[in-house]
Design goal:
The structure is a single chain. The chain is α/β, with parallel strands linked by helices. It is built from eight helices and ten strands. Strands 1-10-9-6-2-3-5 form a seven-stranded parallel β-sheet, with helices on both faces. It has a three-stranded antiparallel β-sheet with strand order 4-8-7. Helix 2 packs parallel to helix 3. The structure holds fructose -6-phosphate. The site of fructose -6-phosphate (F6R) has 14 residues, from loops.
C-alpha cells in the first residue's frame, strides 16, 4: 500500500489522475471502476483537463460505478447513475453505452447484483478502481462487518453513512436505507486501486485503513492485501497517521525510475 500525502484537494486530484493515466497507458479499451461522493471530484476534474488537452481519451473506455441507492430511479439527480453521468461520463467523454451503474430499481435486486458482478468479469475486470472512504472505513458501501470476500449485493446502510449522505437530500428522512454495492472481493480484483480521502473527518478511518489491524471492522483495511493500492490523502486526512513522516520519506526518496509522470 502506497500512501501519498498531498498538500490539498487539488494536488490530491492531480496525483490521483496521474496514477490513473499511468495505469491505463497503452490499454486500448480500459475499464474503470468509478466512485461518487465528494472525494474523487478533483480527480475527475484533472482527468477532464487531460482529456481536453489531448493526453487522455476515454471514448473507447468502459466504466462500472461502485454502487447505487436502492429505490432511486436512474433519472433522479440524487441517483448515483445520474451523478456518474454528470461527473464522469460527460466531462470525460465516455460513450454512455459503456458506463454502467448497479440497478437499484430492479425487481430482483439480488439477481441484478449478480449479473452486474458478472458483467465486470465479462469486461475483463477493472483496470483501475477509484475509491473514496467512509468516515466509518467503508469502501463502496461495504459497511463495517461486510464479508471480506463479498460480491456485488444489496447492503443496509449504517446510520453514520445515512447521516453523512443526508447533505445531498432536502429531508434527511429521504436518505435510502439500502444500496447495491460492489463487494470487497469484487473491488479487490481490480488490477489497481486509487483511493482519495480529504478532510479531517476521514483522518481516523485513514489511520485505521493504513496502519490498523486488518479486519471487517474497517473494510478499507483489506486494501493492505491489495498488490497495487495507492492511497492519496490531503494533510487533514493524514492527521492521525503515526507513520506520516515515513510515508513522506518513501515518496521523497522514490527512485526517479519509479516516479509516476505528471
Ligand atoms: C461512493 C462510495 C462511498 C464514498 C464514501 C466517501 O460511490 O462508494 O464509499 O466514496 O462514502 O464519500 P465522500 O467522498 O462523499 O466523502
Amino acid at each position: 500500500m502506497d500512501v501519498i500525502i498531498a498538500s490539498d484537494e487539488q494536488e490530491a486530484g492531480r496525483i490521483a489522475a496521474a496514477h490513473i493515466a499511468h495505469a491505463i497507458r497503452g490499454i486500448d479499451e480500459p475499464v474503470l471502476g468509478v466512485a461518487t461522493g465528494s472525494s474523487p471530484l478533483s480527480t475527475y476534474e484533472d482527468l477532464a483537463r487531460r482529456v481536453k488537452e489531448g493526453s487522455l481519451d476515454f471514448s473507447k473506455a468502459r466504466a462500472f460505478a461502485l454502487d447505487e441507492y436502492v429505490g432511486i430511479p436512474a433519472d433522479n439527480p440524487l441517483s448515483y447513475a445520474d451523478t456518474i453521468r454528470t461527473t464522469v461520463t460527460e466531462p470525460l467523454g465516455f460513450d454512455p453505452a459503456n458506463v454502467r451503474t448497479p440497478d437499484g430499481m430492479a425487481n430482483d435486486i439480488a439477481a441484478g447484483a449478480k449479473e452486474y458482478d458478472e458483467a465486470i468479469q465479462g469486461a475483463g475486470g477493472i483496470d483501475v478502481q477509484i475509491l473514496g472512504i467512509g468516515n466509518n472505513g467503508h469502501i463502496g458501501f461495504n459497511e463495517p462487518g461486510s464479508s471480506l470476500v463479498s460480491r456485488t449485493r444489496q447492503i443496509c446502510l449504517t446510520r453514520e453513512t445515512r447521516e453523512a449522505n443526508a447533505r445531498y437530500f432536502s429531508d434527511p428522512a429521504d436518505v435510502p436505507t439500502h444500496a447495491v454495492s460492489q463487494g470487497l472481493g469484487t473491488i479487490m480484483e481490480a488490477r489497481k486501486v486509487v483511493l482519495v480521502a480529504l478532510g479531517e473527518q476521514k483522518a481516523a478511518a485513514i489511520a485505521a485503513a493504513c496502519e490498523g489491524p486488518l479486519g471487517a471492522h474497517c473494510p478499507a483495511t483489506l486494501l493492505q492485501m491489495h498488490p497495487n493500492a495507492t492511497i492519496i490523502v490531503d494533510e487533514a486526512a493524514a492527521g492521525e497517521l503515526r507513520r506520516a513522516d515515513y510515508f513522506r520519506d518513501v515518496q521523497r526518496l522514490l527512485p526517479e525510475s519509479q516516479r509516476i509522470p505528471d
